Amino acid sequence: MDASRAGAQLTVDLGAIRDNYRLLAGMSKGACAAVMKADAYGLGMEQVAPALALEGCRVFFTAHLQEAIALRQLVPEHCVIYVLHGPPPGTAKDFFQYDLTPVLNEPGQLQEWRRLAHKLGRELPAAIQLDTGMSRMGFAPADLSALGDLAGVRPALVMSHLACADEPDHPMNEAQRRRFDSLRGLLPGVPASLANSSGVFLGPGYHYDLLRPGAALYGINPQPGRPTPLRQAVSLHARVVQVRSVCEGDVVGYGAHHVCAGERRIATVSVGYADGWQRSLSGRGQAAVDGVIVPIVGRVSMDSMGLDVTGIDPERVVPGAEVELMGPTLPVDDVAALAGTIGYEVLTRLGSRFHRRYL
Amino acid sequence: MDASRAGAQLTVDLGAIRDNYRLLAGMSKGACAAVMKADAYGLGMEQVAPALALEGCRVFFTAHLQEAIALRQLVPEHCVIYVLHGPPPGTAKDFFQYDLTPVLNEPGQLQEWRRLAHKLGRELPAAIQLDTGMSRMGFAPADLSALGDLAGVRPALVMSHLACADEPDHPMNEAQRRRFDSLRGLLPGVPASLANSSGVFLGPGYHYDLLRPGAALYGINPQPGRPTPLRQAVSLHARVVQVRSVCEGDVVGYGAHHVCAGERRIATVSVGYADGWQRSLSGRGQAAVDGVIVPIVGRVSMDSMGLDVTGIDPERVVPGAEVELMGPTLPVDDVAALAGTIGYEVLTRLGSRFHRRYL
């Protein structure tokens, strides 16, 4: 989108993402994959995937089949692409056609893959996911007997997912690790993977043969509350539409909830909740002008919101000028905290009306 | 997107949207526009705009220039397209090139448009927005003197926006209406517009010459707490990835916050917060199976979430089956209430990973 026509500019620092990949990959003796689901956490798989391939990444994960089909054209042929949700009924042939590897989560998916292998008369690779306590994806205790007969399927990876890795002291981490060690005995000699971004920081006991970071690549802090070793990868700057002076008693925004306590200057910027700038930021979110924090006042509208820029040089905040919504002054995790959520949700909701710039 | 590969199916009922337009247009003696911003509130401008043009709609509104450029190719040439944010600096020529009409909100935008008119040696049409108390967009009291010289600009519409129209008894409504009547005296004889969706229901005194509904077209109730006369326009059905039995004490989802009180069946469906199914629905949202409500259990993940389907026939909830997230049993306003927000935010956040079907 033409920058002059857009309401905001989203800048993605591919160099930072590559640096983060290098740092994470260097923490383990094993390999390091990259999670590409949800359009590379909202930052653009089309740009992020090739950048990570250049950095040496050879294993990628998506959630959905359709995402993996798109990814197949973006990375070298020898890269492995796993699809975390496995094959929906009737889609096994698509996996084969596009050279995608399913993560098999339950007996039906295993049967689907075995049927295709039988039909093709060849062995097909798959990852086997074991549920170690999160009760989300992966073979449950009652399903394990189905793993007794894998004929036609070559298990290329055995994996599980941690529910509480962002809380290093949570007993669930160790419980899941032990359960993983016990269960993967069913698949002897198969490379293993357990660690998501936060899991990488739980130590070498969680690394196994393949790390699977997503969030950390994109600058989300995998250890909430502690200093992050990762670089911020994304910034968002909104354009000012207009600036007005308001008087004591004037109201700002829907519902007339914000009542001005005195004379103030209000800038309307053209980003709203339709752009992913959550309505929960109403009256509590922040923006920044050259490093100085200014508050969001009133409710966030669909396409715009108000900022109190009284303390900022009026010549700096004029129609067409840009203010920071996320970036050096407002890291993604801070924005998420103000919105009452996590950085993952902030990034994956970034809208489609921005001009996007890749560094 | 191929339906079999998608994690969910979004169905948009264009017939319902046309019915809603007809109902709204019939409420006023004047004309009725349609608001198309944010991709027709997330439902797809490419399909919605032509459907409304067929229904007789001749005036459309977008927020951004880029949206209007896309809209220009979707509706007949004689349709008027207004851009609510007005021209960002340097873009007046784009408005002229694509036959778009800016909503002028402040003196700088007026100057921008006047400069182009002068350069072209012709009069250019514009809407003039007056701020009547919302302090968001439109000429503020201090800006009004600039309206004294419109040479080169033909005011085709004078408009303002209501801050509290969804609260019929709020004194702000009448205060804004009076202020609008007073201010539009500056532009005698110019057609006027004040009513958004909720404003239409405040009565004929708010209708003027042009209604501007958005939300109501798409089935959002413009009168919260009262029966809606409008048809639901959208439904969302998610695909089941897998189903598992859990025991007393087992946990579900991130953070291990949901602890099962007894033996339950949990279905994992492939919609999560990256699809706009807000994380605030964790542990409080709902889905429905053939009209029977089932709760979301545990935290909503990025690409999936868990439902407690213990009470549902096991043969109905199997991998590949669909469950309702929004539709006849769960109208958009109910989903919004569970998420702690409004229907506008639910619709405008609908994700891009769905198979979309238009009726």
UniProtKB/TrEMBL annotation, chains A, B:
InterPro entries: Ala_racemase (IPR000821), Ala_racemase/Decarboxylase_C (IPR009006), Ala_racemase_C (IPR011079), Ala_racemase_N (IPR001608), Ala_racemase_pyridoxalP-BS (IPR020622), PLP-binding_barrel (IPR029066). It catalyses: L-alanine = D-alanine. GO terms for molecular function: alanine racemase activity. Pfam families: Ala_racemase_C, Ala_racemase_N. The modification N6-(pyridoxal phosphate)lysine is found at K37. It comes from the Bacteria. Its EC number is 5.1.1.1. Keywords: Isomerase, Pyridoxal phosphate. The keyword NADP does not apply. Residues 233-359 form the Alanine racemase C-terminal domain. Its cofactor is pyridoxal 5'-phosphate. Pathway: Amino-acid biosynthesis; D-alanine biosynthesis; D-alanine from L-alanine: step 1/1. It is an enzyme of class 5 (isomerase). PROSITE patterns: ALANINE_RACEMASE. The keyword Isomerase applies. Substrate binds at R136, M302. The active site is at K37 (proton acceptor), Y254 (proton acceptor). Belongs to the alanine racemase family. Catalyzes the interconversion of L-alanine and D-alanine. May also act on other amino acids. PANTHER family: ALANINE RACEMASE (PTHR30511), ALANINE RACEMASE, CATABOLIC-RELATED (PTHR30511:SF0). This is Alanine racemase. It comes from Massilia phyllostachyos. The gene is alr.
